[in-house]
């Protein structure tokens, strides 16, 4: 958390998955052999819930093919050979004044810049900030809690790019005419709270709300309740309760798009864990491999047994580091022991710890039982769709039952059943 962000250059071969967001994959608009520049559109949005993809380097398109991604699956990716010239598209980085832009123009800029939620979900930001009831939105919540252990990228952004984040917030407020913004920051980040309070002291529509340090405080439902005392469930959108939630890194990306004419082509990540030689925060171009980022950071110790992309609670264990950094990549964590596999799984002893620690007050062991018996109607009836997949139940379970994973399976099956009907 005390390590300033440092820049990382691109590697020779860059990989850009067409799916880096919730929704339909983007559609490639380049072909092998094409020459591209930094900031150039290489895949366009193919539908409403979708986001375009841009090249973070100049070079030549070598292929469009299946490549391994973080979740150990394979997806269509655009492969670009970096020529190292860093030639940019026309207008890239040129200044733009917020006052000269209408609300519709701001939404179009955010949409056409490929910005999605950078807190992990990857939902297209342009869709989020343009709800049907925009006039009824009274609270824009900026998520600066970064509640997952180990992660510090957003914290460093708040310290080093506070002015830019505030400008991004102002751009979002311009499309939500009746809203005021509240920056929610956990109280284990006093320097960020102090700095942003000073920066927003004269702002009538932006304030800072210190939050209790409590996982999963950064979850959308938990954050909305902590700031407004309004409750959200799985059948509702935050907009139904007059709220929109944006991550601090997303606000910085909005700033770059609106004020500097720059699409989303880079990301700040944390590289840390007991197995990392030099814990740090790095600003990396999208498309580089996790292996390249780790090596640039200083490498890992030989006895690392587990790498995770994202936080330890909700992140994804990686079977390979040769996977690309995408818009939702948050970190690389390296561990010298695997707490998940340290003890064998045993039978549920009905201790109730999963119930006591579930932020959604679900009876998790009954949900897990329903999934294992393939009774998905019961899973849904017991409230399984309210699971936010925070990982708390799996973490506290003395029997080491993969409760979160079972709930994920149950939710996926219910979604599949709903789609079939």
The unreliable regions are none
In N-to-C order, the SSE pattern is: EEEEEEEEHHEHHEHEHEHEEHEEEHHHHH
So how many helices? Answer: 13
Radius of gyration: 21 Å
Give the strand order, joined by hyphens, for the main sheet.
1-14-13-17-15-16
Fraction of residues in H or I helices = 25-40%
- General shape: globular
User: Quick one: how many beta strands?
Assistant: 17
Taken as a percent bin, the fraction of beta residues is 15-25%
- What structural class results from the helix and strand content? alpha/beta
Sheet with the most strands?
Answer: 6 strands, mixed
Mean pLDDT: 95
Tell me the distance between the termini.
48 Å
Short characterization:
The protein is 28% helix and 20% strand. The strands form four sheets. The protein has a six-stranded mixed beta sheet with strand order 1-14-13-17-15-16, sandwiched between helices.
Descriptive account of the structure:
The protein is of the alpha/beta class and 421 residues long. 28% of the residues lie in helices and 20% in strands. The chain has a six-stranded mixed sheet, sandwiched between helices. Strands 2-8-7-4 form a four-stranded antiparallel sheet, with no helix packed on it. The protein is globular, with a radius of gyration of 21 Å.
């Amino acid at each position: 958390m005390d390590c300033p962000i440092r820049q990382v250059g691109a590697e020779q071969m860059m990989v850009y998955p067409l799916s880096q967001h919730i929704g339909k994959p983007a559609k490639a608009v380049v072909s092998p052999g094409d020459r591209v520049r930094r900031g150039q559109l290489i895949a366009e949005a193919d539908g409403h819930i979708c986001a375009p993809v841009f090249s973070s380097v100049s070079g030549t398109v070598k292929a469009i093919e299946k490549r391994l991604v973080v979740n150990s699956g394979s997806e269509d990716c655009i492969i670009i050979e970096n020529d190292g010239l860093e030639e940019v598209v026309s207008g890239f980085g040129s200044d733009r004044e917020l006052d000269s832009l209408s609300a519709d123009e701001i939404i179009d800029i955010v949409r056409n810049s490929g910005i999605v939620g950078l807190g992990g979900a990857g939902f297209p930001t342009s869709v989020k900030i343009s709800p049907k009831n925009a006039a009824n939105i009274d609270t824009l919540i900026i998520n600066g809690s970064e509640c997952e252990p180990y992660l510090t990228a957003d914290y460093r952004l708040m310290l080093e790019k506070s002015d830019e984040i505030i400008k991004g917030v102002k751009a979002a407020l311009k499309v939500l005419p009746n809203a005021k913004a509240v920056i929610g920051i956990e109280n284990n980040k006093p320097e960020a709270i102090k700095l942003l309070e000073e920066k927003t002291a004269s702002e009538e529509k932006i304030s800072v709300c210190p939050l209790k340090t409590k996982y999963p405080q950064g979850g959308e439902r938990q954050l909305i309740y902590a700031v407004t005392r309004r409750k959200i469930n799985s059948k509702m959108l935050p907009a139904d309760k007059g709220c929109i939630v944006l991550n601090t890194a997303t606000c910085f990306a909005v700033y770059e798009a609106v004020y500097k004419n720059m699409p989303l082509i880079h990301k700040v990540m944390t590289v840390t864990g007991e197995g990392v030689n030099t814990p740090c925060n790095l600003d990396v171009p999208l498309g580089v491999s996790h292996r390249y980022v780790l090596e640039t950071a200083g490498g890992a110790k030989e006895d690392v047994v587990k790498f995770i992309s994202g936080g330890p609670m909700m992140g994804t264990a990686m079977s390979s580091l040769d996977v690309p950094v995408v818009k939702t990549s948050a970190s690389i964590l390296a561990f010298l022991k695997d707490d998940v596999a340290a003890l064998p799984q045993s039978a549920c002893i009905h201790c109730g710890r999963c119930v006591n620690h579930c932020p959604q007050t679900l009876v998790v062991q009954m949900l897990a039982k329903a999934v294992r018996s393939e009774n998905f109607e019961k899973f849904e009836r017991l409230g399984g769709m309210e699971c936010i997949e925070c990982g708390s139940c799996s973490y506290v379970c003395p029997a080491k039952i993969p409760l979160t994973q079972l709930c994920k399976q149950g939710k996926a099956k219910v979604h599949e059943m709903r789609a079939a009907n």
